[in-house]
Structure formats: C-alpha cells, structure tokens
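Work Package 3 (structural annotation) set out to generate three-dimensional models for the target panel prioritized at the project kickoff. During this period the team completed the workflow that converts sequence records into discrete structure tokens, so that structures can be stored uniformly alongside our sequence database. As a representative example, we reproduce one entry of 245 residues exactly as it appears in the project archive.
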Amino acid sequence: MTRFEGRTALVTGGASGIGRATALRIASEGGSVVIADVQDDLGAQVVGEIEKAGGTALFIHLDVTSEAGWDAAVAKTIETFGGLDVLINNAGIGDNEPIEVTSLATWDKVVAVTQTSVFLGMKAAAEALKKSGHGSVVNTSSMYGIVGSGVSPAYHAAKGAVRLLTKTTALGWAKEGVRVNSVHPGFIDTPILGETDRDMLIAGTPMGRLGRPEEIAALITFVASDDASFATGAEFVADGGVTAG
C-alpha cells in the first residue's frame, strides 16, 4: 500500500514503542516521517531502519512540553519536506500512585508531557495542516482516558483531556480540511509499562494477552489515512475488550 505517498508525517515519541511502530508503518506506505523525541540515539536508529528499507525519515530532538521546540520542529519539517500533512501526538508518560500520595511535581510533569504537548503540537502545526488539503491528526489517548482504575490520577486526567481536546479541535477544524481523531490503546507491551507485572495486566484483559505496538500502529495509520476520510472527532479503542465490560 502507498496510502501516504507524497505526504509527510510527524510522530512524537517516535523513537520507541507505539511511536516507533507507527513511524515504520507510515514510511513503509510511502510517507516521509519525522521522528520527534528526546531519545536521540533511539530516534537515529529508527531513521536508519526506515532508510535501510528504502524510506525517507528525519530525526528531530523535541521536548514536547516546549512551545519554542514545537515551533522549531514544525519549521524544520516544512523546510525539509515542503509541508506537513499528518501529526501523530503520541508522546506520553504515566504515574502509578493513588491520589493521596501523588506529588504536585508528578502531576505537573505527567500533564505537561501527556496533555499539554498535544495542545502545543496542534497549535504549532495548525497552519501547515490546513495548507495540506488533507491534513490529519491522531492523538494517542488511552482506554484510561475513558474509564478509571483507582490509581494514576495524572495519567487518567491527562488522557481524558486529550480525548476531549481532540473532539473540540475536530469541530473547530471540520471545515478547514483537517481531521482530528483519538486512538485509545489498552495494555500494550511497550517500555511505558516499566516494571509493571505483565501477568496481572494480561489477567485483566478479556482477550488474555497484551497488545503489540504494531497493532496500534495499524489502527493509527488507518485513522490518519484517507481510508478514514469521513471520521473526525472520533475515538478508536483497541484494548482487548477491557472497556467493553
């Protein structure tokens, strides 16, 4: 497939996990990909993988909490590839404590990286996406942007905010030629899980397994592509059935 031929996508958190899988998938379908991350070495490795497979990619060091950083990343993307068609706001971090012991510093950091980054990214990319003629934004939320778990208050609040920020921006841009949707993964086997007990997560998933980054990447690329051309302001859940109960 060449759904992204002639198009440029910027993927935050593109050096690992779901972001990496998404960057590889878009590149394999003909898109030029900008991997934006703070993990320089891993980001360079992803660029190398893409180029080795015959694709086109660029790494940009980006602190997604920096407005100036976002402006520079978008400018560099346009300078290099002539425009920006697809924005994948995928960067995020989590917390795992109950609210009683969650520090303000933890709250602020998680919200900044996971929520504020999405606002900054869409704001910085707005003009370029509208010029594209077929602009598409996919914001990675979470099943925990829809339901609670009893812990991780900052993560839940941030992912819930991403869900509604997606919807309100989608309505604002509905006649501007830019679609905005959110994807809501469940437990995916990526570095963000850290030392979490995988068996416990599997036991809580009706399908009885963790998701793979490639499965979420397949969903993200569908939503970002013209195959989903009538979808905007929508939420696409891939959680192994967790939120079905």
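The longest helix spans residues 104-132.
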